[in-house]
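BUG: 3D viewer hangs when loading the predicted structure for this chain

Environment: internal workstation, default settings.
Expected: structure renders.
Actual: progress bar stalls at 90%.

Input used:
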Amino acid sequence: MSFPSATVILSNSMPREHQGVAASLVNTVVNYSISMGLGIAGIVQVKVNPSLTPTPEQLLAGFRGAWYTGIILGGLGVAISIIFVLTHLQSLRKQGGPPH
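Structure tokens produced before the viewer hung:
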């Protein structure tokens, strides 16, 4: 959901000749974020389960650690989004309300 919505929002706020650049910027940021999240989750999985021949319980513990990492990163993204929305609303109130 992040890619299409961010592409539409950013391309609507850009002039027509720069909409392609804006869409590729969104694509780059989304793919970079996905790869960083996978890298962090992979590191957590290896640190939780460093064995080369894990038992099923150890394997499950590594997967669980990576899953919890994904949950934490998702929650962090939601928290950052809420902070940005609140600061934007606060700046609109200081300017006299949203434009009509």
